[in-house]
């Protein structure tokens, strides 16, 4: 039988790493200039109205979304267990989190160590423990979900983190939950999981975020811009820079995950979740600068077809319009994003990159290819 372990000892918090100070290797010298910023006050307190206490399993929970979600659930009095391989610390102190709050959280969180792809172990361990609710944060394939459902026949709710990437590319935007989906997308496993949950007749809810950002983001979304702003470099943006996209803050996402818990209106429903407003690529570059207190950036437009970047990714977003309506979540759940884009980017910068922490070192290889080529759009 799997053993549940109560974590009472403080785990190491995130490391403080020196920010990269790489400079543009060209004829122009871009100095590192940061404007004086207004005093920043944290926003987005982790709070939510409670439902009755549940025995909750989170598949994953130690990287990004789960860090904020698990705290909300514990604060509400739920018994929360993280199912992970144990390769990362089960808890870490969040940026800006008090020692008292972190100690309280660490003393209550539980851990079930295992590989979700070991289906026999999943079935035996979950059957032995029993859970009321499952939050599946890191599920990518339907085959990884079926053993969980088999192990928990009395499950009250399965809450799944899907993706707005399941939608079929369209000229008609924003995407709505009823839009056509793409069975060949790189997120097809998430789509197949939603179909499995529906076919099994369980009480499920699926959340489809667009691009997620916020402190501790392991995807180079806002961090990509912050690296270049800090180094005083131009921001290379593909084509016109008028492509429209959408970002949603991780704390707003965590709140909606809790709002669907035990909510009859969320039963067997899909919800798009992101920010209320859309933004162009150029606008995002300027928003990152404003949020972090840097001068307005120099933006360089280029034609991606003129370059061979190999396996390197020259820009962190898909080069197309991509955004979704969040009207359904607002009307059905009464949810509303707490952060606008600049506020959310400021929260991310001040609690993460601005402290000298980041997930990836700055890599300006593709930038230098772009800036060194004569075929630059004007």
TrEMBL record:
It comes from the Eukaryota. Residues 56-273 form the NAD-dependent epimerase/dehydratase domain. GO terms for biological process: monosaccharide metabolic process. GO terms for cellular component: cytosol. InterPro entries: Epimerase_deHydtase. It holds the Pfam family Epimerase. One of its GO terms (molecular function) is UDP-glucose 4-epimerase activity. This is NAD-dependent epimerase/dehydratase domain-containing protein.
């Amino acid at each position: 039988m799997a053993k549940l372990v109560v974590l009472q000892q403080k785990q190491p918090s995130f490391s403080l790493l020196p920010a990269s100070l790489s400079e543009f290797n060209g004829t122009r010298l871009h100095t590192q200039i940061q404007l004086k910023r207004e005093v920043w006050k944290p926003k987005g307190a982790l709070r939510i109205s409670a439902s009755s206490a549940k025995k909750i399993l989170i598949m994953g929970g130690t990287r990004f979304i789960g860090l904020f979600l698990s705290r909300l659930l514990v604060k509400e009095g739920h018994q929360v267990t993280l199912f992970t391989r144990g390769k990362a610390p089960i808890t870490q102190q969040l940026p800006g989190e008090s020692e008292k709050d972190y100690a309280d959280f660490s003393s209550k969180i539980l851990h079930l160590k295992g590989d979700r792809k070991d289906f026999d172990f999943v079935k035996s361990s979950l059957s032995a423990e029993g859970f009321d609710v499952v939050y599946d944060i890191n599920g990518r394939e339907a085959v990884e979900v079926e053993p969980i459902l088999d192990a928990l026949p009395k499950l009250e709710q399965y809450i799944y983190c899907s993706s707005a990437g399941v939608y079929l590319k369209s000229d008609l935007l924003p995407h709505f939950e009823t839009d056509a989906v793409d069975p060949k997308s790189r997120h097809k496993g998430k789509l197949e999981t939603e179909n499995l949950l529906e076919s099994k007749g369980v009480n499920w809810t699926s959340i489809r975020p667009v691009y997620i950002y916020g402190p501790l983001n392991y995807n180079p979304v806002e961090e990509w811009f912050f690296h270049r702003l800090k180094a005083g470099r131009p921001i290379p943006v593909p084509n016109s820079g008028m492509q429209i996209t959408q970002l949603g803050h991780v704390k707003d996402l965590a709140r909606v995950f809790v709002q669907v818990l035990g909510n009859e209106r969320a039963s067997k429903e899909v919800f798009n979740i992101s920010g209320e407003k859309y933004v162009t690529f150029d606008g995002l570059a300027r928003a990152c600068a404003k949020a972090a207190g840097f001068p307005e950036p120099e933006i360089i437009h280029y034609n991606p077809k003129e370059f061979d970047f190999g396996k390197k990714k020259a820009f962190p977003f898909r080069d197309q319009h991509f955004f979704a309506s969040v009207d359904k979540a607002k009307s059905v759940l009464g949810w509303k994003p707490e952060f606008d884009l600049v506020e959310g980017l400021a929260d991310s910068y001040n609690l993460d990159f601005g402290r000298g922490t980041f997930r990836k070192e700055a890599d300006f290889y593709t930038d230098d290819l772009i800036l060194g080529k004569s075929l630059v759009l004007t």
